[in-house]
Write a sequence for this structure.
């Protein structure tokens, strides 16, 4: 073990022991202190890479049970959750699309329709995410369908896996999927959660159209600035220089020959297209038929097995089960912290910050954004955080001089960072759908800082518009 890992190993053990012994967190129970301290130790191990991520996660979960006295059925409850099963099925659907050849065909179809440049293909992926987002009420489901296509496009473009360019294409897709969540209620069930937490009179003001209109400045600014940031940070220098030399001329499309070489669709591709198509339609109309997204995904996998899209050996060797195990443990952090009372303690400790700046909408918006970003390191469930924070903050809205909608929107806009993998189930779904083959998390985490700064600036820039609408 090298020196860095050895230091991380010792620090990851010493920090929880010291914090549990000192109990420095006023108002937090002994159980909550133990759970919080163990998480801090695990974060150190994850950062340094003392052990594989899933082994650190399992160690953390075991200590929750042994030291923090959190029941095993709470600590490991995510393995029976709908989110975890949706992720498992997403892995399987991605494998089926790859094995059948449908993934390559879809990727080449997108390549054919856009010039063969990083900028054009990133634009194509963004457009695909933008168009599909309002109709599928699950960010994870959209990632499951679209992220494997992004990986295949990256491969077809000749980019090395986990290269700057591959990470850039991933972010072009992932960030637009995320952008659409706060801006369009139907893009995710979380939008309906936020709406349901608002007072009834405020709910009556915001149907899908009026919500989008209120969110429009934020959405436009984030989309434009995010695209510019991705181009600056990830576009290949050679392509950038060539574009300048052409003075804006478009690159020629070049995938048509390889696309034609694929020939007509095979039976396996047609079967897979039908299965995915039905699943997407079921996800689109979930509010009408009431069948949850994960149940739809399970039946899709059953249909894939029935049609012979993959065999048992493919499942054993084609899916990164260690990632799925890691995801299950990480998703269990939310119920574990709720059981120990960590989430309520954290939000309650920060609520007085808001009242100190009553009457200043810029300060209120900024504080909500920063508090949300910071506390999401501790409260790992976005839905739990939104529920708890809004229970504290919404009653303060009249005193603060802003509409409760602004509180809900600001929280929603900042609630999904991915500085660490465990913070963001949608990010887990996205990287899991490509078995972590496309991205380097160090690169992703650095861009997360840029992206969250863009979201923050866009929120502040939206304040005058909200004042014009009478919301602030």
């Amino acid at each position: 073990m090298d020196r860095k890992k050895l230091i991380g190993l010792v620090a990851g053990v010493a920090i929880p022991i010291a914090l549990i012994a000192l109990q420095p967190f006023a108002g937090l129970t002994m159980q909550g202190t133990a759970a919080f301290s163990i998480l801090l130790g695990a974060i150190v191990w994850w950062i340094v890479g003392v052990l594989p991520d899933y082994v650190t996660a399992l160690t953390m979960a075991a200590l929750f049970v042994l030291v923090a006295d959190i029941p095993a059925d709470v600590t490991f409850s995510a393995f029976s959750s709908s989110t975890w099963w949706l992720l498992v099925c997403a892995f399987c659907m991605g494998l089926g699309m790859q094995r059948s050849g449908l993934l390559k065909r879809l990727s080449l179809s997108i390549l054919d329709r856009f010039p063969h440049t990083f900028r054009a293909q990133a634009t194509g992926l963004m457009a695909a995410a933008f168009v599909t987002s309002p109709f599928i009420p699950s960010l994870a489901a959209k990632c499951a369908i679209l992220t494997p296509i992004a990986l295949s496009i990256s491969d077809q473009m000749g980019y090395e896996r986990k290269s700057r360019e591959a990470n850039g294409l991933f972010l072009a897709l992932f960030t637009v999927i995320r952008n659409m969540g706060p801006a369009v209620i139907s893009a995710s069930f979380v939008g309906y959660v936020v709406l349901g937490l608002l007072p009834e009179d405020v709910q009556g003001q915001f149907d899908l159209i009026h919500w989008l209109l209120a969110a429009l400045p934020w959405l436009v600014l984030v989309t434009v600035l995010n695209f510019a940031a991705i181009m600056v940070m990830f576009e290949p220098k050679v392509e950038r220089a060539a574009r300048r030399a052409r003075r804006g001329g478009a690159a020629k499309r070049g995938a048509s020959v390889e696309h034609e070489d694929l020939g007509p669709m095979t039976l396996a591709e047609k079967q897979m297209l039908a299965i995915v198509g039905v699943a997407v339609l079921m996800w689109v109309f979930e509010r009408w038929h009431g069948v949850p997204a994960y149940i739809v995904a399970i039946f899709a996998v059953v249909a894939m097995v029935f049609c012979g899209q993959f065999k048992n050996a493919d499942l054993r060797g084609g899916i990164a089960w260690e990632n799925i195990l890691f995801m299950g443990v990480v998703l269990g952090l939310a119920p574990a912290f709720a059981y120990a009372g960590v989430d309520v303690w954290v939000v309650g400790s920060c609520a007085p910050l808001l009242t100190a700046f009553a009457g200043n909408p810029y300060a209120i918006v900024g504080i909500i954004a920063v508090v949300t970003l910071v506390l999401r390191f501790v409260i790992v469930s976005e839905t739990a955080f939104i529920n708890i924070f809004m229970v504290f903050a919404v009653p303060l809205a009249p005193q603060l001089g802003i509409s409760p909608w602004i509180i809900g929107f600001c929280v929603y806009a900042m609630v999904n960072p991915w500085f660490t993998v465990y913070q963001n189930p949608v990010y887990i779904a996205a990287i899991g759908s490509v078995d972590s083959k496309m991205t380097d998390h160090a690169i992703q985490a650095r861009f997360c800082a840029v992206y969250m700064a863009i979201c923050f600036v866009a929120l502040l820039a939206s304040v005058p518009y909200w004042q014009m609408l009478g919301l602030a």
